[in-house]
Automatic annotation (TrEMBL):
It comes from Pycnoporus cinnabarinus. Belongs to the threonine synthase family. PANTHER family: THREONINE SYNTHASE FAMILY MEMBER (PTHR42690), THREONINE SYNTHASE-LIKE 2 (PTHR42690:SF1). Residues 326-341 have a biased composition (Low complexity). This is threonine synthase. The keyword Lyase applies. SUPFAM superfamilies: Tryptophan synthase beta subunit-like PLP-dependent enzymes. Pathway: Amino-acid biosynthesis; L-threonine biosynthesis; L-threonine from L-aspartate: step 5/5.
Length: 547
């Protein structure tokens, strides 16, 4: 299986090249040259498979065995998911007769990004080790470096795209050969708990930089490093981001697993139809469901659930993919709680919500779906290569318009194709809080995190229109303890609610007492940070130094 860019660059890449590259040089995203179909007997053969067994089957449809053998793949997958606390990896829980949640948060950082990043870390390590073993004496080893800035605040501030998955990336890449991680935070400006969460990862390849400066200084330094071509080429800064193909691939597995889990939990498996509803920001999680559907996993339309950052929900209404909602009155920057329920925006126009991991302006993986829509919309009858070229040319044109005009309007035929496979709903913060309350008070007594609640709310909204045989599976993307502010706000009036007892996992306790490692950077200067990276990106750097 080989991969090509959505924007039409001619080259076909191996899986390894695709994973190490991240983004394509023409700005596009890599997709497989075809979506593989399932083996004829999959429903029978796979029905009792574990998460690991299913991963091996599904991933090997997308990875040539001469790149990674089946035995090697099994080893990588086993290692990746041995860090999960639940024996099923992603358990399916029943909330009521027609509603289930697929819990994706039993990995090391208690959020769904672990599913992809645990595997991605092992893939990077595997490829780099093999490449370096083939090098002659004196040749420089290949490295991968991750640099990010964090305010330490997991929610209420403008996080860069990369910081949304920074913690999951740290836990995916800790202790891996030829890989180092540098996390900048503004010294003394983050809360003690948050500082502890970052600095208590003491693996030799994870470096916390306490920068004398503000969060914006840290962000600026990271941006400057990314724009420094030479530095970026040496250190491969760009590979670990939300558009890496391996992340999408890893996430298709739990759609298959939950299909079998649900069939085992109901009495009439052959009569039901599954409807997945997915809380979405960068369209990664739900795109994985779309690949599962295209491969042949039986399901109804996929539900896109957004918060007030609703570029996707607006697309499914109008066929316009646009950063700013041109049909609504402009929100007042900085003015919280506008009367229409639209939250304040930061300088870039992102709305701050109670589900911050979905606070986005554009949705980075959406381009992949647009490519398939353009492909299907391209003139039938021409051969596959011609249609592929036509689709890529269309995407290059559309994404160019998004860049220059902030919007693109797709033809109605394309919108109809999108509506055939998806529906979309926007959920406000008030509805998010009400939903958390509703499921806590329900018979299931379930505590959902605010992202999961966005999905649950969208699912409840469309449920009355579903036929009686529909069963909804809502993807649950984070443990409620990660978003204590929203959960506590929703449940504080409930007499039977106790955050410590009902929500807080033991792993979160005792954090402040643990060992830490920090490198102090005495001024917010790019060169000082570069010096630290150059020095510690080698396998055996000393620790605890100051510059
Ligand atoms: C990243 C994230 C999401 C959104 O996932 P996408 O793949 O970007 O759509 C939802 N919930 C949580 C908790 C997340 O961390």
């Amino acid at each position: 299986m080989r991969y090509f860019s959505t924007r039409g660059e001619d080259q076909l890449l191996s899986f390894e090249e695709t994973v190490l590259a991240g983004l394509a040089p023409d700005g596009g995203l890599y997709i497989p040259e075809r979506v593989p179909s399932l083996p004829a007997n999959w429903q029978c053969a796979w029905k009792d498979y574990s998460f690991v067994d299913l991963s091996v089957e599904i991933l090997s449809l997308y990875i040539s065995p001469d790149e990674i053998s089946r035995a090697e793949l099994r080893g990588l997958v086993e290692k990746s998911y041995s860090t999960f606390r639940h024996p099923s990896v992603t358990p399916l829980k029943k909330l009521d007769e027609k509603t289930y949640v697929l819990e994706l948060f039993h990995g090391p950082t208690f959020a769904f990004k672990d599913v992809a990043l645990q595997l991605l870390g092992n893939l990077f390590e595997f490829f780099l080790k093999r490449r370096n073993a083939r090098k002659g004496p004196g040749e420089k080893p290949e490295k991968l470096t991750v640099v990010g800035a964090t305010s330490g605040d997991t929610g209420r501030c403008a996080l860069s795209e990369s910081s949304k998955h920074l913690r999951a990336a740290i836990y995916g890449l800790r202790n891996k050969a030829n890989i180092s991680i540098f996390i900048l935070h503004p010294k003394g400006r983050v809360s003690p708990i948050q500082e502890a969460q970052m600095t208590t990862v003491t693996d030799a390849n994870v470096h916390n930089l306490a920068v004398q400066g503000t969060f914006d200084d840290c962000q600026d330094i990271v941006k400057t490093l990314f724009n420094d071509r030479e530095f970026n080429a040496t250190h491969r800064l760009g590979a670990v981001n939300s558009i890496n193909w391996a992340r999408i691939l890893a996430q298709t597995v739990y759609y298959f697993l939950s299909y079998f889990q649900l069939r085992r939990q109901v009495s009439n498996p052959d009569e039901i139809e599954i409807q997945y509803v997915v809380p979405t920001g960068n369209f990664g999680d739900i795109l994985a469901g779309y690949y599962a559907k295209r491969m042949g996993l039986p399901m109804g339309r996929l539900g896109v659930a957004t918060n007030a950052n609703d570029i996707l929900a607006r697309f499914w209404k109008s066929g316009a993919y646009e950063k700013v909602d041109s049909s609504a009155p402009a929100p007042t920057p900085g003015a919280a709680g506008a009367s229409d329920g639209r939250q304040a925006t930061d300088a870039s126009g992102v709305r701050e919500t109670l589900s911050p991991a979905m606070d986005i302006l554009v949705s980075s993986n959406f381009e992949r779906l647009l490519w398939y829509l353009a492909f299907e919309g391209a003139a039938q009858g021409t051969d596959a290569v011609e249609r592929r070229k036509a689709a890529s040319a269309t995407i290059a044109d559309w994404m160019g318009k998004v860049k220059s005009d902030g919007r693109v309007q797709v033809p109605i035929s394309v919108l109809e194709l999108a509506r055939r496979d998806f529906f979309a709903e926007r959920v406000s913060d008030d509805e998010t809080l009400d939903t958390i309350k509703y499921y806590f008070k329900s018979e299931a007594h379930y505590i959902a995190d605010p992202h999961t609640a966005v999905g649950l709310c969208a699912a409840r909204r469309v449920a009355p229109q579903n036929p009686p045989q529909t069963r909804q599976i809502v993807l649950s993307t984070a443990h409620p303890a990660k978003f204590s502010e929203a959960v506590t706000r929703a449940l504080q009036g409930s007499p039977s609610f106790d955050f410590q007892r009902d929500v807080l996992p033991p792993e979160f306790k005792g954090l402040l007492e643990r060992e830490r490692r920090v490198i102090n950077v005495e001024a917010p200067q790019v060169d000082l940070v570069k010096q630290v990276i150059e020095r510690f990106a080698e396998p055996a750097g000393e620790v605890g130094a100051s510059v």
